[in-house]
Amino acid sequence: MPVMVDGLRMPAIVAGDVALEICNTRAAWSGGEETHEYLHSYQHVAVWARHAGLLPDLATADAAEGERVLDRVLEFRRAYYLALTDGDADWALLSRYVRDYGPGLHAGTDSVADWDYGDDAERPLRAIVHRAAQLLASPHSHEVRACAGIGCGWLFHDPRGRRRWCVMAVCGNRAKAARHAAAHRPSA
Q1: Residue 138, CA atoms < 13 Å, CB-side half-sphere
Q2: CA distance 1 to 165
Q3: pLDDT given for residue 180 in this prediction
Q4: Using CA atoms, how far apart are residues 141 and 71, in angstroms rounded to an integer?
Q5: 170-to-36, 53, 147, 165 alpha-carbon distances in Å
Q6: Spatial distance between the Cα atoms of 98 and 176, rounded to a whole number of angstroms
Q7: What is the distance between the alpha carbons of residues 165 and 156, in angstroms, rounded to a whole number?
Q8: Distance (Å, whole) CA 47 – CA 62
Q9: What is the mean pLDDT of residues 152-170?
Q10: What is the pLDDT of residues 10-28, one digit of tens each?
């Protein structure tokens, strides 16, 4: 479910919690035939962070610095996804990111929700780590589900425990169509 933002393909915002959207920048977590990566460059990270609502404006970086930040974002995203899905999470890595990128965060002047992530290339990473740490430390982390769609695995907030699909019109309909085709397939 890509959308175009500033000329770049970005994933649709579907998780119901901005802290989960970073995990949905990769498709086919659940072992589908083909994975799709939305974060190919630092520019993709910066545009995505603004698109997801983590940053109010576009972060910038030179090429080498941007590449280092991209690598860190992808490393953190993988560990975070595994932590949320009861996978083999690297808690030491997650703790190091929270320790390294969490200090110095403080509320902005207007409201508690207006966090100052600095003005350097690591702004998107600080915002991602901050929101992720908040979710991991909250009881809402137990309300996170992975989409049951074949080849999806996107995460979403499911406080009532009733949701199965990231988007019913996409993954839910694919599953229904597959069940219908299997039920009406001629016997060999």
Answers
A1: 14
A2: 13
A3: 44
A4: 25
A5: 16, 23, 11, 8
A6: 41
A7: 8
A8: 15
A9: 88
A10: 999 999 999 999 999 998 8
- Hey, what CATH class is 2-183 in? mainly alpha
Euclidean distance between CA atoms 55 and 52, whole angstroms: 8
- Helices within 89-172 (DSSP H only): 91-101, 123-136
pLDDT of amino acid 25: 97
Per the model's pLDDT, the better-predicted residue between 91 and 2 turns out to be 91
Phi and psi at 166, nearest 5°, equal -65, -45
- Band (pLDDT 50/70/90 cuts) for residue 65 is very high
- Sequence ranges of the domains in the chain: 2-183
The confidence band for 103, taking pLDDT boundaries of 50, 70 and 90, is: confident
- Token pair, residue 169, equals 């019109």
Token pair recorded at residue 17: 């919690």
**Spatial distance between the Cα atoms of 86 and 112, rounded to a whole number of angstroms:** 31
Residue positions counted in the chain: 188
Q: What is the mean pLDDT of residues 29-44?
A: 83
DSSP string, 57-95: S-----HHHHHHHHHHHHHHHHHHHHHHTTS---HHHHH
Map 156-183 to HEC letters: EECCCCCCCCCCHHHHHHHHHHHHHHHH
Residue 41 pLDDT > 60, yes or no? yes
